[in-house]
User: Which sequence fits this backbone?
């Protein structure tokens, strides 16, 4: 090792940490660590390996430094983010673009030199009086072709603790890798904090991504979507790596649906945040493989996927014993759980929709002395728990985890599902005619009404390509083309669309558990075991199959009127959606030809159907 590093490291770390560090023989990693020490100037540097003892050190550190508060149930802690730090912050999340290079104009960006200088000015000295934590993790199953090693540096034990729950440990992966192995690097600085240990310099919050060096830097934020390097920050880097190497990195869950006679069918699904992604992965009677991020590769001619993560950072609002029994049980069991931005009263966590009445005061995302009716620092009304309050748990603590969820070769994907929050256009479930039609009209035309998972107004309909729009690190056209091209010569998964949010007279038309029926119908379709009707923009279920499935899965009667209400083809709304999409894609320079053709063909089919039938077509009138 470079003797300058040796001196720098030995000065700030224990002998034990030093020997852990030098067992990793990677110059790029050492340089990144050394630069961070020089820039951020920590009092102490702590290096963790994959041992249980080190994981325990981090957990305790988060409590000792008051980033987490222990709760009554052993293993449970609560963490709070600042009032203005309750979600991913798109405004200040930017790509660093070197001079002379261009990045798609849709992407938020800043000149690389300018951005680096600004970031370094905010990170300078940010670890003074603090401990710099050096951690090694792995995206995807370790020691496989999916694996991407990641080096996380942070001064937040909460960030490192979250990563222990959410990701596979990667110290051994780093020790084993050679100098050429590509890895991702993250430097996070909490920055100035208030008395609640939350980042307080809101105006200096920044999340900058350097695609050139596979590095993400964040400062003056704690919310996991902005700081936990391996989550959404890694997804942006992984998209580029996948583009170079010919695989796919997606914002998708993976789950197993249990079909007739022990048949297993795996589905992956993309839904914008807070639109039913986790609950689809957790459908009762089925098994979860992962709930947020998936990598896909072709292995031996098969389309296979892995869960990039090993835990869940899920939305807690409305998780209750009736609707989400498995998660609810876990959240009340003595396993490791980090509650984020819930309400705490007498050591017990509370959240909206948990199925019991909430205390009228306690500690929450607003204050240590919150009470009902209190307004926030922005003058707005506050809630007991934040709408984007979350829980962090390990996959292995879920009783419905698919036993082989960590299969090193991934799992064969039978169906891909795209779903958004849509009150008036799409039917609850539809199947694309083929791969290209599915990618273009369900994935690339995905729209959703906004939620609290990102900062800003809620309920606005926004276009969100494959629910990956927030994380794209290349042009939209190229990303769609990569999806079209992926796995060209293999049997591809079927592509489906779902909509859990259809309304009539302001009321939702579907119950929360109905997705259990849609998945069974999709399972049958993957294997050609059910017929379907051509609705002009895809294939929809027949009444008789849904009637049987509603009885089988939910013991409910599905009436003809239910079928008509839910599966009426709304041609004006479908055409309006096409208008919006054609407008959007006309402005995108590299819209794939296939995309244009699929949109034009869709329009023609819908117009023909309207010509033969009417604007609103009962599914009973389709043949
Ligand atoms: C999402 O918002 O899509 C999440 C949570 O999964 S975050 O970590 O904020 O990305
Ligand atoms: Mn997500």
Assistant:
């Amino acid at each position: 090792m470079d003797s300058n590093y040796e001196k720098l490291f030995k000065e700030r770390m224990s002998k034990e940490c030093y020997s852990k560090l030098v067992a990793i023989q990677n110059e790029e990693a050492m340089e990144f660590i050394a630069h961070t020490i020089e820039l951020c100037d920590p009092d102490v540097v702590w290096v963790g390996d994959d041992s249980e003892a080190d994981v325990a050190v981090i957990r305790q550190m988060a409590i000792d430094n008051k980033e987490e508060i222990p709760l009554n149930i052993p293993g449970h802690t609560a963490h709070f983010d600042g009032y203005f730090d309750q979600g991913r912050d798109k405004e200040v999340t930017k790509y660093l673009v070197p001079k002379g290079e261009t990045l798609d104009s849709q992407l938020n960006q800043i000149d690389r030199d300018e951005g680096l200088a600004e970031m370094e000015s905010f990170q300078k000295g940010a670890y003074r009086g603090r401990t710099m934590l050096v951690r090694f993790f792995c995206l995807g199953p370790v020691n496989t072709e999916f694996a991407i090693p990641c080096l996380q540096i942070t001064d937040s034990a909460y960030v490192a603790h979250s990563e222990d729950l959410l990701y596979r440990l990667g110290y051994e992966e780093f020790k084993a890798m050679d100098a050429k192995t590509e890895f991702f690097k993250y430097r996070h600085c909490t920055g100035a904090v208030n008395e609640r240990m939350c980042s307080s310099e809101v105006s200096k919050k920044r999340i900058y991504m350097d695609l050139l060096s596979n590095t993400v830097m964040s400062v003056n934020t704690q919310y996991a979507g902005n700081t936990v390097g391996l989550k959404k920050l890694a997804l942006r880097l992984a998209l580029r790596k996948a583009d170079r190497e010919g695989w796919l990195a997606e914002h998708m869950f993976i789950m197993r649906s249990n079909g007739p006679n022990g048949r297993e069918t795996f589905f992956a699904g993309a839904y914008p945040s807070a639109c039913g992604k986790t609950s689809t992965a957790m459908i009762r009677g089925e098994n979860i493989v992962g709930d947020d991020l998936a990598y896909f590769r072709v292995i031996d001619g098969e389309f296979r996927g892995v869960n990039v993560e090993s835990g869940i950072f899920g939305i807690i609002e409305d998780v209750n014993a009736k609707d989400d029994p498995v998660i609810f049980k876990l959240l009340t069991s003595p396993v490791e759980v980090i509650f984020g931005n819930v309400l705490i009263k007498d050591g017990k966590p509370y959240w909206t929709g948990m199925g019991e009445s909430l205390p009228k005061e306690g500690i929450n995302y607003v204050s240590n002395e919150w009470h009902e009716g209190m307004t926030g620092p922005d003058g707005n009304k506050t809630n007991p728990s934040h709408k984007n309050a979350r829980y962090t748990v390990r996959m292995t603590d879920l009783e419905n985890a698919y036993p082989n969820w960590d299969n090193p070769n991934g799992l064969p994907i039978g169906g891909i599902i795209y779903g958004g929050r849509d009150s008036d256009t799409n039917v609850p479930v539809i199947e694309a005619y083929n791969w290209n039609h599915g990618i273009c009209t369900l994935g690339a035309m995905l729209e959703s009404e906004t939620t609290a998972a990102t900062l800003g107004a809620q309920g606005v309909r926004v276009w969100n390509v494959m629910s990956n729009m927030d994380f794209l690190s290349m042009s939209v056209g190229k990303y769609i083309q990569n999806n079209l091209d992926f796995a060209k010569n293999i049997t591809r998964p079927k592509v489906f669309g779902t909509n859990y949010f259809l309304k009539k007279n302001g009321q939702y038309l579907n119950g929360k558990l109905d997705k259990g029926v849609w998945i069974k119908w999709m399972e049958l379709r993957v294997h050609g075991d059910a017929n379907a009707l051509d609705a002009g923009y895809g294939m929809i279920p027949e009444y008789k199959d849904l009637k049987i499935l509603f009885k089988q899965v939910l013991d409910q009667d599905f009436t003809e009127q239910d079928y008509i209400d839910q599966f009426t083809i709304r041609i004006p709304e479908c055409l309006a959606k096409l208008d919006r999409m054609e407008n959007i894609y006309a402005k995108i320079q590299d819209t794939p030809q296939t995309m244009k053709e699929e949109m034009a063909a869709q329009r023609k089919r819908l117009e023909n159907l309207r010509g033969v039938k009417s604007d609103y077509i009962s599914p009973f009138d389709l043949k």
